Amino acid sequence: MIVTGGEAPIPIPTLMEGAQATLANFEVADQLFLRLAALGPELITSGDRGFLPLLAREWTRRDSVTLSFDLDPRARWHDGVPVTARDVLFTMARARDQAISPRLAGLLRHIRSVSAESDRRIVFQFSHPYAEQLYDATFHVAPLPAHLLAALPPQELRRSAFMSNPVGNGPYRWVRSVPGQFLELAANESFFRGRPDIDRVLFRVAADPDARINLLLSGEADVMDNIPPPPANLERVAAHPDLRLVRVPSPAIGYLLFNQRDPRDLSRPHPILSDINVRQAITLALDRKKLVRAVFGTHGEVPFGPVSALLWVRHGAPPPLAQNQAMARDLLSDHGWADRDGDGTLERAGRPLRLQLTLPNTSAIRRQLALLAQEQLRQVGIAVEVVQLEWAVYAERRNAGLFDIDFNAATQDPSPSGLTQSWSCGGGSNVAKYCDTGVDSLLERAIRSRTGSRDTWHTVLRRIEEDAPAAFIYAPTYVFAVHRRFRDVAIRPESSWIALWRWSVDR
To answer: What pTM did the predictor assign?
Structure first.
């Protein structure tokens, strides 16, 4: 029993778009559907060597723009049908279709073609040489069963029987889902890479963090996916004799995202936040190190730019700006903001510097940080109203761009190339409509590099920091709790339970 705060309503490749691009969906999908290859333990995304076979038993580089993959002949769908090249072609066609999967289509834009030379061999052609070709071909999307879905019109998949009973090829089979309560999986008895030792896996949903901890401490749950702050929670769990803590580099990053468009009329710039001076002043007004220490203790840091603890490009990056409230006040004053009526809030041309900060009610971490940030911003004359919303309402409003400041907690891909999703002009997750063509050009240069130059990526981060599209608050280290009866425990930062099938259990 894994207790978690997020529900997985659509854990199906090519459908995890928009509001469904959630950690919960991705992590359950990794139990049901295999990729062609997996990242190795070092999480190296550049080159062809840092990967392990999954559906593909081997691959060959033919030239600088061509990779071929040979499928493992033992691989089977859960209904017993062999996995073939047709499945890969069908799924890649869906994933590269902007109308079906806009987020994936952007990530796979450098794949020029995918073809089959036989039932077992697939050939990827890329538009140009670059360091992450193998990563792009294998990481972003896992194949779907063409024999079950190819006859369906693309728009019908979301309404098909497959949605309520997905058929995969991974170590676990779908059993059932009770919305708002739990999702159940069973071991795939004929999994070609070895039957899982754990027979049955349940993901139990509890939105309230205290409820999750109580389920864990009472023995009703075996695993908790991330013990939330404050540090006292870690102490409670660590004191339990049947539980142990597992620390994992996190792919998460939390930031205050500044909307570049007016939420009341998206065709117009935001009346306050389209001004770079206001955005920079907000960042300068915040003591982000103090915020992180107060909530995460030693299990978090302030990032430079939008990089989590998972991304290698954070190494050697400049330190983030320290708090400087005097500079923040001067910056605002120099651009016409003043407290003319003495109420403590700055105004300009009759408009008060008053903003809403929205966040989901499922995140105690973001709520605590938001309240601390609210007070720090008040000290320089910026009035912030903290608004907590039900998850569904929050996600709908965020994806529609209906916010001033969104307290987002993003889960990043292991590669910095994933930054294009939120920080390029056309990024599929760019809900705040941040657009700097210079950043786009730098991103493209870094991605096209044959060596994955760290210096180029640092230039990208500096440019984003200068633009201040967000105030980057925290990059945490996750701390999981696992019952001691489980052995061979490995929790992976790119997908927590992707190695679950290799765990063993004392019975």
So the answer is: 0.77
